[in-house]
Amino acid sequence: MNSTYHKPVLVHEVIEYLDPQPNKLYLDATFGGGGHTRAILEAEPSCKVIALDWDTKALELNGERLQQEFPDRLTLAWGNFTNTKKLLADNGIQKVDGILADFGTSQFQIFERAGFSFARESALDMRMSPSHQKMTAAELVNKATAEKLSDIFFELGEERYAHRIADAIVEARKKGYIKTTTQLADIVKHAVPLAYAKGRIHPATRTFQALRIYINHELENIKMFLPTACSLINSKGRLVLISFHSLEDRMVKQFFKQKEIDGIAQIITKSAISATDIELRENPSSRSAKLRALEIL
Ligand SMILES: C[S@@+](CC[C@H](N)C(=O)[O-])C[C@H]1O[C@@H](n2cnc3c(N)ncnc32)[C@H](O)[C@@H]1O
To answer: Chain centroid to CA 155: how far?
Structure first.
């Protein structure tokens, strides 16, 4: 297993906007496969990085090797980024000189953890960190009302057939517990119109995305993380954020605007930065990535 499981997105742009400086300290709040952490360490040979993730597997499989490569410059920490202040304090750190967060899930998790991919049969779990999330996607799918499921698919997946899919799930579970990814993908495929099922993306893509965001409390976590992150950056340091979902990006955009109005920070990306055509060809996962950056005054 290796970190090439996750190809980091917008790497040049992350380095340009984070702008690592000699002897300064940076936080990578979403270590994942470690691609961005590596890029920061390589871009400025005297800076240090503290990297966190709530996925123990990601830290063990991708982090330990990178730490051997940069023994005095990389610290790894396990936990939820909503708890960043305490995680830094536990490592004797009050403030850092810049923070990067690359939200969402990694390709590594899609391969290594159960439930994320409809292309591979696995238990319908979808928890990025079983220590932080109690409810699995299977529990939700088998217990929630049709209304609740429909709301989740519509709001978090922007799924236009949310109603139909929710009704089909409730119907299917009368025959037995929905246990696996492929079972759910099949139910979705048969619930939507044929033309949609044969469309550019797999018909279960939006349903799976919505369940993943819900199960991992992704939007709530980002909402809590933003003010904490801002308060932990030294003057002239930057907060660089990559979102993959329009609701995430909207939250980041509004938060940045408010910080500018409050006079404590300046937005340094006029509009969201997206992947170039070259990157899109090399890494289709960068398709919906949007980067925004803020400098603390
Ligand atoms: C898109 S990946 C990051 C990839 C990484 N930038 C790289 O270069 O490989 C997102 C990572 O954030 C982690 N993550 C998501 N939400 C988190 C949270 N609330 N606290 C800590 N880590 C989180 C996930 O476990 C995942 O490993």
So the answer is: 17
Question: What amino acid is encoded at 51 in this protein?
Answer: A
Ligand 1 closest atom vs CA 128:
25
Q: How far is the CA of 102 from the centre of ligand 1 (A)?
A: 6
Beta bridge partners of 74: 49
Judged by DSSP in three states, 102 sits in: strand
Residues 210 and 248 in one domain: no
What is the value of pTM for the model shown?
0.94
Tally of structural domains, the chain: 2
Tell me: do 152 and 99 sit in the same domain. Answer: no
State pLDDT tens for residues 184-208: 999 999 999 888 878 788 899 999 9
- Look at residues 192, 215, 238 and tell me which one is the last residue of a structural domain: 215
The pLDDT tens digits of the residues spanning 110-132 come to 888 898 888 889 999 999 999 99
Tokens of 265: 């920070």
Rounded Cα distance between 14 and 290, Å, is: 11
Q: Which domain holds residue 85?
A: 3-105+218-296
Q: Which residue from 161, 152, 216 is spatially nearest to 187, judged by alpha carbons?
A: 161
In a mutational test of the pocket of ligand 1, which residue from 53, 111, 131 has the highest number of ligand atoms less than 8 Å from its CB? 53
For the CA of 79, the nearest atom of ligand 1: 21
Residue 138 Cα to ligand 1 midpoint, Å, equals 22
110 lies in some domain: no
Task: Quote the DSSP letter at residue 3.
Answer: G
